[in-house]
Design brief:
The chain is mostly beta strands and 393 residues long. The protein folds into two domains: 52 residues, membrane protein fhac (Ubiquitin-like (UB roll), Roll), CATH 3.10.20; 329 residues, membrane protein fhac: a member of the omp85/tpsb transporter family (Porin). It is 5% helix and 54% strand. The protein is built from three helices and 20 strands. It has a 16-stranded antiparallel β-sheet, with no helix packed on it. A two-stranded antiparallel ribbon has the order 1-2. A two-stranded antiparallel ribbon has the order 14-15. Strand 3 and strand 4 form a beta hairpin. The longest helix has 13 residues. It is globular, with a radius of gyration of 23 Å.
Length: 393
């Protein structure tokens, strides 16, 4: 696995740039605590020996955890994961996450050097349940993708995903228009182009990630939902001073129905929650309409989601106790989803700020964050507490 990342071979003319690039690629894997290169003189005056010493991290984990958040109450999670199986770089995991509002079960397999080549293989199987304010979404499916490295830090991959979705338990405020075609089979092809210069893919502190993904789903692929989606993601990491790291994340998305029906309700864009706007409850921000809550009741908001998405996140991480991976974080979020009759608009983004505590625990990256919205609207919470296992970006 180490040899595959080296940009130089035995007998090559010594090249400082390629030696440094080889060390960078080994560090980017995230498998090693230390990567050290030494170049003592060889058997003759015109030769060098390249000695590589690495200290491997623990790459296999069995985790059980629990937490609490404003939106989901108690959260339980468990996973078995391995990031460098038999030293070949093969990774995979079996995981489960349960809360009042969601159930997720996933099996994943990743091979960054499929058949000892420059090809990458990734496959997943999953089953989910999300309980939203106005409906429940159950799904099961899987995906398979294969990619190839291009140049030093770029890759291109193509894939296929199939997912069966069942939307039930509609609240009385969901219009009949959105109940149509709410369930069904999605069969789609995917094309992803990415460039990754991060210093560590698991816990980055320097570098950038740029990715663009295209998805095409339709009945010609055997599914019932016809749509095209394109999304882009840009991430930036920069160390400042005294271990402080600045992070920035931006996402943009667009989805279009390929027939005369609207984009399915479960494929539309929503914002709010621990992975977008942390000062708002999940899926509470986006295009909405006023609907009577009952024949004799007052009107209430129904957030039906948009066909366009724009979000930004900025963070500053401050180390508290580096050996244990404990950090403070301060963040600012901005974002919104926009409907078919709206355009992307910076001035209409909802914003929040907040702070939190992060711990790189044996269970995985734990995030405890408190978000406070700017320009809070009636019915919105003044403070939202989020807990999750995993990174935002």
């Amino acid at each position: 696995m180490i040899r595959r990342e080296l940009q130089i071979k035995e007998g090559d003319i010594y090249n400082t740039r390629l030696v440094n690039l080889s060390k960078q690629k080994l560090q980017q894997l995230g498998y090693f605590e230390e990567v050290n290169f030494a170049t003592p003189r060889g058997k003759s005056d015109d030769s060098l020996v390249l000695n590589i010493n690495v200290k491997e991290k623990s790459t296999g984990t069995f985790n059980i955890g629990a937490g609490f958040s404003t939106a989901e109450n108690f959260i339980f999670s468990a996973s078995i994961a391995k990031e460098n199986f038999f030293g070949y770089g093969i990774g995979g995991q079996i995981s489960a996450e349960l809360s009042k509002l969601r159930q997720q079960f996933m099996l994943e397999y990743r091979d960054p050097y499929f058949l000892d080549s420059q090809w990458m293989l990734n496959t997943t199987l999953y089953r989910t349940l999300y309980v939203y304010n106005d409906f429940d979404r159950r799904s099961y499916g899987g995906s398979l993708s294969i990619g190839h490295r291009v140049f030093d830090n770029s890759s291109v991959s193509v894939g296929y995903q199939v997912e069966n979705v069942d939307v039930t338990n509609f609240s009385s405020i969901v219009p009949g228009f959105f109940r149509q075609d709410a369930s069904g089979l999605t069969s789609e092809m995917m094309l992803n182009v990415a460039r990754d210069t991060r210093d560590n893919r698991l816990f980055p502190s320097k570098g950038t990630y740029l990715g663009v993904e295209n998805e095409l789903a339709g009945n010609k692929l055997g599914g019932q939902n016809d749509f095209y989606r394109v999304s882009g993601n840009a991430r930036y990491y920069q160390p400042i001073i005294w271990g402080i790291v600045a992070k920035a994340n931006g996402k943009i998305g667009f989805i279009k129905s390929m027939n005369d029906r609207s984009v399915p309700l479960f494929e539309r864009y929503y914002t709010g929650g621990v992975y977008s706007l942390r000062g708002f409850l999940p899926r509470s921000i986006g295009p909405k309409i006023r609907i009577p809550s009952s024949p004799a009741g007052p009107d209430t908001d129904f957030v039906y989601g948009g066909d366009k998405l724009l979000t930004f996140n900025v963070e500053l991480e401050f180390p508290i106790y580096a050996p244990a991976g404990v950090k403070w974080v301060f963040f600012y979020d901005a974002g919104n989803a926009f409907g078919e009759t709206q355009n992307y608009s910076i001035k209409n983004l909802r914003t929040d700020w907040g702070f939190g505590l992060r711990w790189q625990s044996p269970v995985g990256p734990l995030r405890f964050e408190w978000g406070l919205p700017f320009n809070r609207q009636p019915g919105e919470d003044a403070l939202v507490f989020n807990f999750t296992i995993g990174s935002l970006f």
